[in-house]
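RECORD TYPE: inverse folding
INPUT: structure tokens
STRUCTURE:
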């Protein structure tokens, strides 16, 4: 007869063997699942190029259909426009006189504007001279000085001009008259030339 210790040892070995067999069976099931998933993934991977090709073909077909649709829409609009033109052909418009540019400006009147500029320039010069005289006044005799200042003028000293001073004064007057005359002549020539350009 075997001892109780030996029986207990055999039972433990059998229990361990049963556990090992159960684990082996579980691992076999998991290995089968893994192989099935691997096969499925491989099948899907082989279908990816086919799916991409089908998608590209669908895109090309869509572009072709879209182009045909746009062409039909354009033809329909042209046909509708032709029908409208045929319906309103009785009311046609014809340009009798072609558009042209007027030989003279509509506004402003160049001749009148030129004369107005000359007059305004003279008026501006006179006004500037007047305001300068008001800001820095001069008096030709003692009575005007007394009237302006409101005080009595006790006396005055006459200015004795030398021959050189009188000659210089005459020269300044001649220069002023010459400059003013040249300005008037130039303004007149400009007005006449502008008037001739407007008439021409």
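DESIGNED SEQUENCE:
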């Amino acid at each position: 007869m075997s001892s109780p210790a030996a029986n207990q040892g055999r039972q433990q070995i059998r229990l361990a063997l049963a556990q090992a067999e159960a684990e082996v069976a579980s691992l076999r099931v998991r290995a089968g699942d893994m192989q099935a998933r691997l096969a499925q993934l491989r099948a899907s991977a082989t279908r990816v190029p086919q799916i991409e090709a089908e998608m590209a073909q669908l895109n090309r077909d869509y572009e072709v259909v879209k182009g045909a649709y746009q062409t039909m829409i354009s033809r329909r609009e042209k046909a509708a426009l032709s029908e409208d033109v045929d319906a309103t052909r009785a009311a046609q418009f014809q340009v009798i006189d072609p558009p042209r540019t007027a030989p003279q400006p509509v506004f402003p009147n160049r001749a009148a504007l030129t004369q107005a500029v000359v007059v305004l320039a003279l008026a501006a010069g006179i006004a500037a001279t007047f305001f300068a005289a008001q800001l820095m006044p001069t008096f030709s005799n003692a009575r005007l000085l007394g009237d302006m200042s409101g005080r009595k003028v006790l006396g005055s000293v006459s200015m004795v001009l030398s021959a050189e001073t009188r000659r210089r004064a005459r020269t300044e007057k001649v220069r002023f008259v010459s400059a003013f005359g040249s300005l008037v002549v130039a303004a007149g020539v400009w007005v006449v030339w502008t008037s001739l350009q407007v008439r021409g």
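NOTES: The longest helix spans residues 4-87.
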